[in-house]
């Protein structure tokens, strides 16, 4: 087991609930968010669960778990959820209506890491709203830390190393690194626990620091990309039933597949 105490930072994002089918707004410029249910990003929920499991497995190993979210004031709801699951403290960075790109998010998180003196960042591999899958990698690059992405299993060894199993094409890959480290989580890492009302009530007593983007220096928030339009995907054409192999072959030839 690693002898160095862990100060874990878990960044989380408030997104449209994964069970909701997104709709394009009337102007065709973005996804409709009015009157839509929001919740914690599923990959981030897995990251919170993993941090809590590490602490439960060996309490002497983990000094603290700090959850942080960059988003609107309503994002404090998902932070309360993190606190109810077992995070010790949290920070809400109110972004108002500013939509941050991954590089800006990584730069803000870098300053949070330094402020919290964190030595392990566990975060979702991607958010289901933009599917960028690069904030963790950018954060590791800015911190000059090793990174283990798409984690399906995390193990701490007796010599102070962290072994991370990653799912790759055709099998699994195990990477080993020392702290400090950035880990991004994949779906098969764990199944997040259900949070009961009692724990949610207790979470209200846990500390939640509230900051604004202006509190972070030397971070360029100007977007590099501009969304020109958002469109619904084209409906899939209906399938065709065939009565024989010969008919199937004929259809495939018509489609110029064979």
TrEMBL record:
Primary site of residence: mitochondrion
Domain of life of the organism encoding this protein: Eukaryota
KW Iron-sulfur (keyword) present: no
UniProt domain Electron transfer flavoprotein alpha/beta-subunit N-terminal: residue ranges: 28-220
UniProt-listed PROSITE patterns: ETF_BETA
Record text on subunit structure and interactions: Heterodimer of an alpha and a beta subunit.
Protein name per UniProt: Probable electron transfer flavoprotein subunit beta
Protein's organism: Torulaspora globosa
Taxonomic path: Eukaryota, Fungi, Dikarya, Ascomycota, Saccharomycotina
């Amino acid at each position: 087991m690693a002898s160095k105490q862990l100060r874990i930072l878990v960044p989380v994002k408030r997104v449209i609930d994964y069970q909701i089918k997104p709709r394009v707004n009337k102007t065709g410029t973005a996804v409709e968010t009015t009157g839509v249910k929001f919740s914690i990003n599923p990959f981030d929920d897995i990251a919170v669960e993993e941090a809590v499991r590490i602490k439960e497995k060996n309490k002497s190993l983990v000094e603290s778990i700090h959850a942080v979210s960059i988003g609107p004031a309503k994002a404090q709801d998902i932070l309360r959820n993190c606190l109810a699951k077992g995070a010790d403290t949290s920070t809400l960075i109110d972004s108002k209506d500013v939509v941050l790109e991954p590089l800006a998010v990584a730069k803000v998180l870098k300053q949070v890491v330094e402020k919290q003196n964190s030595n392990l960042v566990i975060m979702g591999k991607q958010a289901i709203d933009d599917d960028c899958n690069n904030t963790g990698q950018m954060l590791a690059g800015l911190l000059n830390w090793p990174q283990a992405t798409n984690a399906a299993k995390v193990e701490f060894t007796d010599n102070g190393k962290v072994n991370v199993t990653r799912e790759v094409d055709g099998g699994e890959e195990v990477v080993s690194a020392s702290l400090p480290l950035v880990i991004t989580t994949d779906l098969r890492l764990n199944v997040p626990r259900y949070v009961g009302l009692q724990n949610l009530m207790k979470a209200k007593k846990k500390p939640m620091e509230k900051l604004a983007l202006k509190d972070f220096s030397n971070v360029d928030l100007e977007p590099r990309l501009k969304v020109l339009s958002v469109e619904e995907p084209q409906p899939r054409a209906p399938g065709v039933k065939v009565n024989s192999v010969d008919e199937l072959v004929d259809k495939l030839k018509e489609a110029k597949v064979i």
